[in-house]
């Protein structure tokens, strides 16, 4: 049962899993890049980034590139640690069977 | 929750990590063609030099300028072929050709290439040309190793081989031409064939 507790509910969705995966290997990613890679709609993606932001797993920076507003995301230390835990819990669950 | 779902999660994580950080649409076929261009170019240059009056290459002759032109043509054709075939492959995969990953790949590839290119031009203008073949191999190898982090990881091995050949060329400058043929010609064909069968054929 102890392994199950490491499965993090916050990552238990394809889009959130995707956001975290992308941000683990990239210094940062902007909204457009996430949207294209995950093939998600604006609203869908926004609600998932918000959830991850609320959990303090990702950081959001709003800035302007020229006159265009640009939102970019990066992981927090907490987010990285939790995501690693989540992955190893997944691996253990798979190996068990 | 089934274990099958977890397996899907893991493969989704892997997929996203690769897709977002590596440009993997490089075409193996373009490597083979680049190798063939290099061999043809080298054969023409070899024929020109050995049938010339002197029988060897000097820096300020017409033949040297022709050789330089051949070299530029080989590089130009290789780049154009690479871009065309890679675009085709990316389209087939539904991937974008000019996105964050390919930009990062080109940027990191170009740093050693441009530095090496300028270095070679500078020493050529100073009349030192004995090590050109080796230097080209070394800087190209470094560019490949650097780029491999942002593309198919296997490119790294081709880079390491080119660096090794370049260092051998530094030890034996007399064989610089043949090592260049081996590195830019033969190795490209061998490697391109391997990549073609590993990544292109089965998919």
Contiguous low-pLDDT stretches of chain B (5 residues minimum) are none
The fraction of residues assigned to DSSP E strands of chain A is 15-25%
Oligomeric nature of the chains = heterodimer
| Helical fraction of chain A | 55-70%
CATH topology of chain A: Arc Repressor Mutant, subunit A
| Main beta-sheet strand count, sense and barrel state of chain A | 3 strands, antiparallel
So how many helices of chain B? 7
* Tally of discrete structural domains of chain B: 1
Give the count of helical stretches of chain A. Answer: 5
Rounded average pLDDT of chain B: 90
Provide the CATH architecture of chain A. Orthogonal Bundle
Shape of chain B: elongated
Shape of chain A: elongated
Overall pLDDT of chain A = 89
Element pattern of chain A in H and E: HHEHHEEH
Number of strands of chain A: 3
Instruction: State the share of residues found in helices of chain B, binned by percent.
Output: over 70%
Assign the structural class of chain B, choosing from mainly alpha, mainly beta, alpha/beta, alpha+beta, or little secondary structure: mainly alpha
Tell me the distance between the termini of chain B: 31 Å
Keywords (chain B): Membrane, Transmembrane, Transmembrane helix
Transmembrane segments (chain B): 23-49, 61-85, 105-124, 130-148, 155-172
Keywords (chain A): DNA-binding
InterPro entries (chain A): WH-like_DNA-bd_sf, WH_DNA-bd_dom, WH_DNA-bd_sf
